[in-house]
């Protein structure tokens, strides 16, 4: 009976042809969208789709030690009252805090570093910035010194804000350099440049790190970017490590991967013990893969080959790299 009905429908109803053509169009469109990385309904996917797509390319890394870490300290922060920062270095270093550094002066200094003028000492930065800042404070940091340093513009400068947006001056520029010449010869990374926003009367956004750059002895510059653990892995989607690229970058360009070496001991212990860092897919193996360009560290090396999209944010995965547990850096 059903066969007779279908034959009759095929012979006399134009809706049958329209339905067949529409169905073929939808299936073809879904296949094409799937090839280009777009999400398609599960019902339209092939059962062996996860086995047929190409594996995620592996980003080749080079191990590198980063001797600098700089974080915002505790307590309130403002232009009038100052801000506290917490440096942590593997070697004795010098912290130079430039208040009100001109944006164009910093960009010019970083470009000069990439074109031959190596910025590796506080004096080099003083000369490269050409006095385009309001005030400079210098602190000497020991290799095991984790005490917060409070920096502040002197009251006689009478500076309460840095104007309306867009601004010509960064509120605070913090530069870490190695103090001893022998250390500058031993490390590839010779300086850390951190741009910090400090709230004032005109712009009350809370204090935070805007950019962080690493300068190398070869004249390269890399921007540090955070890696993000999944909420299930760390209790919140928060930064864990940093990234750096292997190509020189301008102050606002893309960069990828360097893991900072002086990290908090609690994080190192949790990582080594494997606490709360299970793969979000299999919930069994430890997380050891970082997906790019979203920078989510959420899967293990076995599960990463089964996905074209990040399990956390659904961004298309272009490549990945292995997250090592050691204290050294990678590039």
UniProtKB/TrEMBL annotation:
Subcellular location: Endoplasmic reticulum; Nucleus
This protein's record includes keyword DNA repair: no
Keyword flag Methyltransferase: no
Molecular function in Gene Ontology: zinc ion binding
Major place of residence: endoplasmic reticulum
All copies of domain RING-type, residue ranges: 279-314
Keywords from the named record: Cell cycle, Endoplasmic reticulum, Growth arrest, Membrane, Metal-binding, Nucleus, Transmembrane, Transmembrane helix, Zinc, Zinc-finger
GO biological process, one term: negative regulation of cell growth
Chain positions covered by the region annotation Disordered: 235-270
A GO cellular-component term linked to this record: nucleus
Classification via Pfam families: zf-C3HC4_3 (PF13920)
CDD domains for the chain: mRING-HC-C3HC5_CGRF1
Transmembrane segments annotated in the record for this chain: 15-38
Role description: Able to inhibit growth in several cell lines.
Protein name as catalogued: Cell growth regulator with RING finger domain protein 1
Provenance organism: Perca fluviatilis (European perch)
Record lineage: Eukaryota, Metazoa, Chordata, Craniata, Vertebrata
């Amino acid at each position: 009976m059903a066969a007779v009905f279908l034959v009759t429908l095929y012979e006399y109803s134009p809706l049958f042809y329209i339905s067949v053509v529409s169905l073929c169009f939808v299936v073809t469109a879904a296949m094409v969208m799937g090839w280009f990385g777009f999400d398609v309904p599960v019902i339209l996917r092939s059962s062996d789709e996860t086995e047929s797509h190409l594996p995620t390319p592996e980003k080749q890394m080079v191990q590198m030690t980063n001797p600098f870490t700089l974080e915002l300290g505790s307590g309130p922060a403002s232009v009038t009252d100052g801000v506290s920062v917490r440096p942590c270095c593997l070697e004795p270093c010098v912290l130079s805090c430039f208040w009100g550094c001109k944006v164009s002066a910093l960009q010019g200094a970083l470009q000069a570093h990439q074109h031959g003028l190596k910025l590796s000492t506080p004096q080099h930065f003083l000369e490269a910035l050409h006095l385009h800042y309001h005030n400079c404070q210098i602190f000497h940091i020991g290799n095991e010194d984790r005490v917060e340093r409070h920096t502040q513009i002197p009251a006689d400068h009478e500076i309460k804000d840095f104007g309306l947006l867009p601004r010509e001056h960064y509120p605070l520029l913090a530069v870490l350099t190695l103090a001893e010449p022998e250390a500058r010869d031993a490390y590839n990374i010779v300086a850390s440049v951190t741009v910090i926003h400090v709230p004032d009367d005109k712009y009350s956004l809370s204090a935070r790190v805007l950019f962080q750059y690493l300068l190398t002895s070869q004249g390269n510059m890399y921007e540090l970017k955070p890696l993000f653990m999944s909420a299930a892995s760390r209790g919140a989607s928060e930064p864990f490590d940093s990234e750096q690229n292997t190509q020189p970058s301008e102050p606002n360009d893309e960069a990828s991967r360097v893991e900072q070496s002086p990290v908090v001991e609690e994080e190192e212990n949790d990582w080594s013990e494997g606490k709360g860092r299970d793969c979000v897919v299999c919930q069994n193996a430890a997380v050891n893969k970082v997906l790019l360009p979203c920078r989510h560290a959420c899967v293990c090396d076995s599960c990463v080959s089964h996905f074209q999209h990040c399990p956390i944010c659904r961004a298309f995965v272009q490549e990945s790299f292995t997250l090592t547990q050691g204290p050294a850096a990678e590039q």
